[in-house]
Amino acid sequence: MKFLTMGLLMLLLHGKAKSQQTEDSVKAVVNLLFSAMKTSDEALLLSCFADRALLQTLSKNKEGHLFVKNESLKEFAASIGSAPKGALDERISFDMIKIDSSLASVWTPYTFFYNGKFSHCGVNSFQIVRTAIGWKIQYIIDTRRKQGCL
Q: What gap in Å lies between CA 113 and CA 92, rounded to an integer?
């Protein structure tokens, strides 16, 4: 009986450790994205994304109506690459991570600073997929606002 209890405990702990490793791997690709932004490294940024990744943001038009704006990954990466090193500082926290097999969903509230000055805040919602070479960002949608942030 003692061996059975020990065996079950070992299996449980192994499963929990493997789950933590997977969560850490998912967090790593998100952290790498923001590191690439901060260092203005276009190539590093692109390495975080899956083929045909989608980027969107929720915006408001002049009348104040909400719409979803599509962003080109190539244009986004080029703008990051052309920014002065250290100018882009998006500070995130991991609020929620859900993982099922090769799909992860990550929710990260953030505050964004440009050249050390507050710009805006919001939430990033990531869909991340496990590929043959590791976890890659497939989809991002975010919100942006200036009030209710700090």
A: 11
Contact 119, 90 (CB under 8 A): no
The answer to whether 46 touches 77, Cβ cutoff 8 Å, is yes
pLDDT bucket at 8, cuts 50 / 70 / 90: very low
**Pairing state between β 134-142 and 49-60:** parallel
| pTM for this prediction | 0.84
Query: How far is the C-alpha of 35 from the C-alpha of 20, rounded, in Å?
Result: 22
DSSP state of 84: P
Query: What is the number of other CB atoms lying within 10 angstroms of the CB of residue 96?
Result: 10
| Per-residue model confidence as pLDDT tens digits over 103-135 | 999 999 999 999 999 999 999 999 999 999 999
Q: How far apart are CA 41 and CA 43, in angstroms?
A: 6
Round to whole Å and give the CA distance between 109 and 145: 12
Tokens read off for 147: 């009030």
Tokens of residue 80, six digits: 């990051």
With vertex at residue 73, the alpha carbon angle to CA 101 and CA 117, rounded to the nearest 5 degrees, is 100
